[in-house]
Structure formats: structure tokens, C-alpha cells
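Lab meeting minutes (informal)
Scribe: AK
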Amino acid sequence: MTAYERIGGEAAAQSVISDFFARAQADERLKDLFGGEIAPGARAFVAAALDPDAAEARGDQDLAFVWLGANSLEDDELDLVIGHLAAALEAAGVDDETIADVADQIELLRDESLGPDEDEFDDEDGDEEGEVAA
């Protein structure tokens, strides 16, 4: 069951999304991302965090990836986004496990949009980066 289903479907999700964007727009540290008119990619990002399968079917994940790539969220900004979405979910009475699942999905979306972290590669044979061992 997706977070979308666990929080109560469309009406509950729309309430959480509205609360999240109000929180994000009021945060001075996120005003460049969420101030003014909310970009379709930002909406797709939140939709993909709540219901990844439906978001993929609608193309929201691709739109979210473009938005993430274009905005180059830093770790601290992503932490703020997760915090505001968690607070909106908590205010709606969503349980901690579901909130953690949504936070994990946001991390996954970011990882997928940015590709592998260079630190994840271990150069065990001492080859220069980018070299292929013969």
C-alpha cells in the first residue's frame, strides 16, 4: 500500500500537499525553489514521493527529475523539504512509519535524478579514476 493510500487518498493528499507548499513558501531558505507560483515539477516531485507507481505511470517522476536537476537541491535544502513534508503529514495525523516511507522516497528520487555518488565508487585496485583494468 502506498503512502498515498495510507494517508487517505486524493482529498487527504491534496490537503497535505497544500500544507506542505504553504510551509515551503514561507521558509526563507526555500523561497527560490517554492516562492511565487509553484512549478509543475515541484508538484510532480511531491506526488512522486506520495505515490511513486502512479507518478511513474503519469510521467510525474520524469518531470520531478527534470525539476530536481534544474534546481540542484543541496543536502540542507532537501532536509528542509523533507522536514516540511513530514510536518504537513504529521499535522494531517499520518503515522510515523508512513512519514518515514515518504522521506525515503524523496531520498530515492533525488538519488535517481542525480545519478550515483562518486563516493560510492571504491577504487580497490588503485587504478586511476576512469581507467579500466586490463
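Next up, CB showed the second protein from the same session:
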Amino acid sequence: MKQKVLFICVHNSAGSQMAEAFLDDICGDQFEAHSAGLEPGTLNPLAVETMREIGIDISHKQTQSVFDVFKSGELFAYVITVCDETSAERCPVFPGVTRRLHWSFPDPSTLRGTYEQRLASTHKIRDQIRARIEKWCDEMCPVEAVG
């Protein structure tokens, strides 16, 4: 049975959506990924574009509220907050018996500069999230040596 993982950030518009997609892509046979936000907004177009560039389409995803997820009564083995350190105090806490982890990533919605600069920064954030998910999957789902 797959373990459920909930990724949480403030808006559920970029970081948590990317983390959810990467977990599904990298070790979806072991985990069932979900995401939510404290103040759900709309999907960040930069996140959608940077994920599309590597063959993952998140454009159909809807943002959702942590409160709505909580009200559903769904239980999660892991709740992972992906808020950056500057907004960590606003990053929601999900109650219940679960393992809580915090992985700090910059929030693409706070990026400034030209479109190209913000896109380049979103690429870096995307790659940081992918690397962290890959590392976690390696830790959680070790491949058995074939003898």
C-alpha cells in the first residue's frame, strides 16, 4: 500500500505542486503525493513552464486549501512543508499523527526581475526540488542489490 505524502506551501501554486509531481514521477510506486496551501491561489505560470520543459505537465492541477484537505479527514504518512525560510512562520502546520518534515525552497511567486530572470530562478528552484525528492526517494526506497 502506498504511503500518502502531503506537500504544503503558502499558495500551493509552485513549490508544493512541483514536489508533488516529482514524487509521483520518481517514486510514485511507493508514495501517493498530494499538495495544498494556506492561501491557495492560481498555478504559477513559471512553474508550469519549467516543469513542461522536462516533460511533466502540471497545467491541469488545481490549487487547494490545507483546511479543505484537513476537513476531508484524509491521513498522511508524511507532511512536508516546502516554504522558504522568510515565510516559514506562515507555513501551515497539518495536525494529526504524521511525520513532519521541512524542506526550505525559495517561493517562485516572490521572484523579481525580468521574465527571463524569474524563469532562470524558477529553473534553479525546480532543480533543487527534484534533487531533494530524488535524495528522499533513495533514502526511503532503497533499491535491493541483485545478487
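CB comment: Strands lie at 3-9, 31-37, 78-81, 99-102.
No objections, moving on.
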